[in-house]
Structures are given as C-alpha cells and as structure tokens.
Specification:
single chain, about 260 residues, mainly beta, 12-stranded antiparallel barrel, 1 helix, 12 strands, about 5% helix
C-alpha cells in the first residue's frame, strides 16, 4: 500500500487538467469484480473563465480500488494545470479528491469524501471540502441505461485569491443527478451529470455545474472522449465572474 501511495503522488505531480469542473461521476468505473482499475486522460481543452479564453493540452489520472468483499470502493482523483505566456499566469489550478463508497444494499450506497482545490481564474485561492451522504440508484437496466441521485452535507472552507482576501466557513448541500446511456453496437457511452450546491441558510447562494461527455472505443484499452462543461456561482469572489465554460476532446487509456 505504501508503494501504491508513492506511485499515485508521483503520477499526480506530472499530470495536468483544467480542474475547476471535474465531474466525479464521470470518473467512476464499472468494473464488477475487478478490484483495481484506473485511467489516464489526454485532452485538448478550450476554456472561457473570467473573460479569459485559453486553448491548452492537459492530462488527468483516476484510480479506483475495491475491498476484498467488493462492498467498499475507494476513488482517487488528482490534477494540476498551469498555462503561461510571457511570464504571466493565464491559468493556474489544482484538484485532489478522495472518496469512499460503502454498499448498503442494491439501491443505496453511503459515501464520504475530502477535496482540496484552488483556481485563480475563479478567485479560489484555497477551497477545502468534507462531505458525506447517500447515493441512490434510480434505475439500471440491462440495455446499458442507468440513473443515480445523490445528496450530501458538506463543510466548506474557502479563501479567495482576489485583491480582497475573504475567508468563508460554511455548510452546503451537494446534490447531483447522473444519467448514463450505453451504445454497445458501437461501443460508446454518453454520461450527463448536473450538480446543485446551495447553502441551507442562504438558499440564493448556490452553485450549479453540468457536464455531458461521450466516449468511443478505439481499441481494447483506448477511447476517444469529448465533453462540454458549464459552471455557475451565484455569489463568486469579488471582481470575479461566476461562470466557466469548458470544452474537451481527447484520448483515454484504461487499465
């Protein structure tokens, strides 16, 4: 296990991704009885954040491990991205996510997660999250269609990166709906996920993000991926626009 942890952090130090719109649902791996799986994504990414547009290449890593009884799943995600021109940072963000999922029955899982994030284009110097809650299977059919709904209570610590340094400590709800459609004849999969994260005490303070992605098999372990993401923050940090758009196309290697 110690060697595995060292490998994970060495890989994360070399991999890059636009981190502000990482879709956790899109990184889950349906591996049945396989206890260890992962993937590496190589992308060409167009972003429009805070009135700044960038075209850049990136990569990401996801690892998933299961317990011997296959009832507990551990998911590790990490990324780092930095774009510079003439010694000026145009994009600088990072993301690390650790999630544990425990199977209660065929329809309900209980999850807990921790997350560390920073994104200077969105005015986030540091954001720390701790959350827990149920994940429910709405349906999963034999014709490669599935729907899941989750809702979590999470603690949030956020420090802004603007001229005015603001520190927030608050509770948020994090709910999501994810839909998956498989196309076995062409070995393709479509996934769409929408997150809604309001503050229970100030409900008009909310965040919405949605991502739709499509992947096609090129070879046994190689897939072509394409996706669109949208993020909105009703109360962004001062002097920052609370909207981000991301369009990605690239290659995924699965192992």
């Amino acid at each position: 296990m110690k060697n595995l942890i060292c490998v994970v952090f060495l890989l994360l130090s070399f991999l890059q991704l636009s981190a502000q719109l990482v879709n956790i649902e899109n990184q889950r791996m349906q591996t049945d009885s396989i206890r260890f799986a992962g993937n590496v994504n190589f992308l060409v990414d167009y972003t429009d954040n805070n009135n700044i547009t960038l075209l850049q290449t990136s990569a990401s890593l996801a690892l998933q491990m299961k317990s011997k009884n296959l009832r507990n799943i551990f998911l590790i995600l990490g990324s780092y991205d930095r774009a510079q021109a003439k010694n000026q940072d145009f994009d600088h963000n990072g993301f690390f996510h650790l999630r544990s999922t425990q199977k209660i029955n065929d329809f309900i899982r209980w999850e807990a997660f921790g997350q560390v994030q920073f994104n200077y284009l969105l005015g986030i110097k540091q954001r720390l999250l701790l959350g827990t809650g149920p994940r429910m299977k709405i349906f999963k059919s034999n014709n490669h269609k599935a729907a899941y709904f989750g809702v979590m209570q999470m603690l949030e610590y956020e420090e802004s990166s603007g001229e005015i340094n603001v520190i927030l400590r608050q509770l948020r709800l994090s709910s999501y709906l994810t839909l998956t459609f498989g196309f076995p004849k062409i070995n393709a999969e479509l996934t769409s996920t929408t997150y809604f994260q309001p503050r229970p005490d100030v409900f008009k303070d909310y965040r919405i993000s949605t991502q739709t992605s499509m992947s096609f098999a090129l070879q046994k372990h190689l897939r072509f991926t394409s996706g669109f993401s949208y993020y909105y923050d009703a109360f962004p940090p001062a002097n920052f626009r609370g909207r981000a758009i991301s369009i990605q196309q690239g290659i995924r290697y699965e192992f």
